[in-house]
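Repro case for the chain-ordering regression, as requested:
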Amino acid sequence: MHNSETSLFEKIMKLKAAGEFPAISDLIPYSAFVGFELDSDEQGLLTILRAKPSNIGNTTIPAVHGGVVGAMLEHAGVMHIIHECDIARFPKIINISVDYLRPCIGNQDTFARGYLIKQGRSVSNVRVEAWQSDPQRPVAAAHAHFMMG
Amino acid sequence: MSIDENTLYPLNGIRSILEKLPHVEALGITAIELNRGSCLFQVEYAPHLVGNLETGVLHGGVITTLMDSAGGAAAFSVVPVGASIATLDLRIDYLKPAEPGKSILGYAECYRQTRHVAFVKGHAYHDSPNDPIAHFVASFMVGSVGFAPDAQQ
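-- result from build under test --
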């Protein structure tokens, strides 16, 4: 499991070239644990968080734990950069700000899309939105900075 | 901050209810310390929580969940019985990578509380709070929607 850092990166770049984004998510243990999946369509990359009882953080509604929602937005952000940008190394997160807009219902799938606001030489700014049944009614949104170089 | 214990949630109640939330339990997050207005949570290192297979570093989402949980507990510890808590927003600054194999501590404190909002800040670290992995700031809505310990019973 512990190859050199370039080999995981090369593996990801190969999968990207082949358009096999769902397989990239499988290289990340935490993704499988919480249930992240990747899909690409005409609008670009789509990140999916499958409904899972073990992701519940609020048993009253019940709703997905805010930490998992934040994790999904971070994951969608980094995957969006890999999808959109010519990168020489794995983007490294600097910070993320998450706004919680509506309850993220626990027994529904959640979807997220990233938008590259600015791609700089060393830092990129990404906006990510997540929704459940209606893309016009986001459950959460984030902006994050990633180190590129 | 109110010091009338009778109008607040009992600390032991907050601890046992938060530790039993499905995702808190799934991640193995435990409360090390819980006081009025502040708390210390811990998450153990586990291979299935890794975000980078080659470095073995935990996924950033694990820190987000640890800090959101700790922040929520700090907020619960100061709001009146019957009030619920919902995260309004949070920000995480990743100061340095977590070390593989080591558990992570998350400290959060409610530094300002109004009728409707609890303002919380904190940090995540391995051995010393003076050598943080991440900084955290969040605000929580205090109100009638969201999660309340009472609703469990």
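Ordering looks correct now. The radius of gyration of chain B is 15 Å.
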